[in-house]
Amino acid sequence: MIDRVGLFVTCLADTLFPEVGRATVTVLERLGVEVVFPAEQTCCGQIHLNSGYPDEARSLARRFVEVFEPFDAVVSPSASCVALVRGHYRALLDGDDRGVPARVWELSQFLTGVLDADDAGSRFEGTLTYHPTCHSLRHLRVGDAPLRLLRAVPGLELVELPGAEECCGFGGTFAVKNADVSAAMLEEKLGNVLATGADVVCACDASCLMHMGGGLRRRGAATRPLHLAEILAS
User: Is pLDDT above 80 for 1?
Assistant: First the structure.
């Protein structure tokens, strides 16, 4: 068992959703894991690589490797960022990744696959529907790890999301460059979310929750977006 991990909090959690980072620490510490936050960490480089700036992304990737190399495991509440590190760093750094990407885990994968802990000691009252984000589903292939964790939470009623595997329309810069298409995809996703009648829509990526949350607020909907870490920390 790994009892000490480095926390990769990501840009979005650091600047907009610090509660997700705090919740991640709460869950890990409750399970007996010591969490270290390297203050030197910065962006993983995803937005740069996706926008056609590989040199800038490479520089950030090198920094990531240097900062997190001392840790046997690195945990992050972002399937999207972890997918970039694990799926692209080796090629981006011409193989000089020092084995770091293989030790980087998305939270639900770390809890169920490394700690073998389906029960995080949580409790949550209410109904919840789960949106499997594109990166968690298709790149990291987290499988049913988030659902296993959610099903173990007393008081939580899990409601199936229609069209769950369809993209919410965010896609990082996709939402900016293809705003009309993104908005149409969001409307379809929100229709499915609201059809469940759930109190909460949950996901493994704050970015997708930000996108859906904005749409829910514009509709005046009562459904709240909450990250998986926030549910598990409750």
Answer: no
